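Section 5: illustrative case.
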């Protein structure tokens, strides 16, 4: 297995994304996706779903409303996701900066850069790339801990995030690149959730 595309082809027959959204991440291309990308840091997605539902019930899943919402209410809504004080601040600052620099979410999606995202409080490489891929429709591979753990199990080790990302994107053609990279990341996550054991990663392909 010499490239990310080889791994993609090995994972695809396992039907890991069966009954999942087309791009794997729920509600892509929406402001809600950005919120989820911050909430999911250092926590399980099931907890994020609870937080998103509480934000929805309190009508806070709007860029303009969240930017100016009461911090106490925001913290209470996202409490299930953990680190709610820091995440509430990060969410509110991100929302305010989007409005200040882009005016609205649609303009943000078209014009935002990776550098701009990385300059925001609480956003690192993984979160920035997730927002670009699933929130903005960019041709970006998201690298997370599952990606690195699977590659190690396959005998590949890299020194930096960028090196992993470059390997993962090798071999893909330009056709359907965004969709394939989004699904590739999703397949890796679903594979690891299914086959990662305490003793290591089970390789079934």
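Designed sequence:
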């Amino acid at each position: 297995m010499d490239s990310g595309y080889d791994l993609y082809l090995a994972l695809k027959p396992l039907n890991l994304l069966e009954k999942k959204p087309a791009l794997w991440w729920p509600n892509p291309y929406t402001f809600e996706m950005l919120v989820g990308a911050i909430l999911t840091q250092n926590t399980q997605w099931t907890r994020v779903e609870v937080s998103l539902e509480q934000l929805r019930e309190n009508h806070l899943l709007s860029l303009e409303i969240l930017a100016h919402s009461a911090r106490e209410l925001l913290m209470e809504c996202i409490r299930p996701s953990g680190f709610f004080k820091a995440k509430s601040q990060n969410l509110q600052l991100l929302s305010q900066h989007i409005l200040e620099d882009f005016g609205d979410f649609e303009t943000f999606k078209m014009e935002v850069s990776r550098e701009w995202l990385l300059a925001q409080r609480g956003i690192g490489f993984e979160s920035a790339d997730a927002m670009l891929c699933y929130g903005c429709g960019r041709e970006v591979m998201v690298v997370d801990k599952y990606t690195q753990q699977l590659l190690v199990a396959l005998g590949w080790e890299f020194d930096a995030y960028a090196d992993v990302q470059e390997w993962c994107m090798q071999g893909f053609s330009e056709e359907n690149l965004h969709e394939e990279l989004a699904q590739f990341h999703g397949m890796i996550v679903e594979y690891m959730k299914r086959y990662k054991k305490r003793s290591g990663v089970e390789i079934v392909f």
